[in-house]
Amino acid sequence: MSKRINSFFQPIPSKKPKSDPEATTASSPSAPVATTHHPTYPMPIRDLPSHLFKPIANLERVIPPKAINNQPHLDLLYFQPFLPSPIARDLFNFLRNELPFYRVQYTIRRGPTETLINTPRYTTVFGVDETSIFIPGSQQDTPTTNSKDPNTPPIDSSPPKPPITLNPSLTLVESRTRAPPTTLKDKTKYNHPPRPIPPCLDVLRQAVEAATADGTHYNFCLVNYYATGDDSISYHSDDERFLGPNPTIASISLGGQRDFLLKHKPVAGSDVDAGKPLKFPLDSGDMIIMRGETQANWLHSIPKRKGAQGSQGRINITFRKAVVPGGTNNYYRYNVGDGAVYRWDESGKRMVAVKKEKESEPEGEKELQKVDGVKA
């Protein structure tokens, strides 16, 4: 009896504090992760850690997409979600930390007047149109030490550095002739050097293509980062000729929830209601695929958003296929430009503008210097 009484009055053992899932980011893996570098990248880009790569590469479709085609000329596939919530959360943190972003400025002319446009979001882009292709070459890894060699210096006991995967032989060539991209004037047909889609985004591209299994292939990846609710994109349609007729565009949302609005283009003499938009509150991990006549007849936008939801950052990844060089020139002009590169500063919780790499520094060891910061 005394044992029972004593045990009854024993102090209750304290519970271990639960770890904060939001504090765990994909940018701090327990083991080194390979890093890919191409001469056209402003800095090396880390590959996905295994806890992200494996589930995305082997993505199993549990909930089938919802087909939305009950409006004139509308053809959507709505995945709720496409990526499980934990994967979407960690992928958001990883991409925000690792990708180079830009805040592009450009001018437009309306008659005699030129107007300076400041893109109201951060952007980046990778890929090339179907007239060109990147030919994969042998990947060269950084040399490793051999402990059996007596001339090898002592092994460094500091934490291992991520291996750098250099791709100097990943060459851009004409799709048909495998010759360097040129025009009739023997000049390059691209105003900005196209960049291959890095592995951390290419595994997503393959997962998206496999999700529909309809033969759709994408050669471009555009990434938008909406830092606050003030970042937005106005009504527009991706109906440029360089995308070909009836293009298919896949759009993945990561991070904070934002409304995705769709409205039909005005049609003269028609009873089509162009004034009332359709609204999709996209959560992290959701994906919408726009197909068929959607781009030719509908406009879409991400409006500004106030309140707590608007204060959360959001990443939007779109995959598409450009068929002519005009698409490549357009995407790099309006999503890269010629300004500073921005990187996420985790300590300051903001995007920071950095200088480009110095050409004299060796590949994989170039450092980026901070210029100024933009509060996220």
TrEMBL record:
What positions does the domain Fe2OG dioxygenase occupy?
Answer: 217-323
Q: Which residues form the signal peptide?
A: none
Region described as Disordered: spans on this chain: 1-41, 134-196, 354-376
SUPFAM superfamilies of this UniProt entry?
Clavaminate synthase-like (SSF51197)
User: Which GO terms label this protein's molecular function in UniProt?
Assistant: broad specificity oxidative DNA demethylase activity; cytosine C-5 DNA demethylase activity; ferrous iron binding
Where along the chain is substrate bound? 239
Task: State where composition is biased (Polar residues).
Answer: 137-148
Q: Where does 2-oxoglutarate bind?
A: 224, 226, 236, 300, 314, 318, 320
Q: Which PROSITE patterns match?
A: FE2OG_OXY
Superkingdom of origin? Eukaryota
Annotated GO biological processes are:
DNA alkylation repair
Compositionally skewed regions (Low complexity) per UniProt:
22-36
Q: Where is the composition biased (Pro residues)?
A: 151-165
Q: Name one Pfam family in it.
A: 2OG-FeII_Oxy_2
Spell out the protein name for this chain.
Answer: Fe2OG dioxygenase domain-containing protein
- Natural source organism: Aspergillus homomorphus (strain CBS 101889)
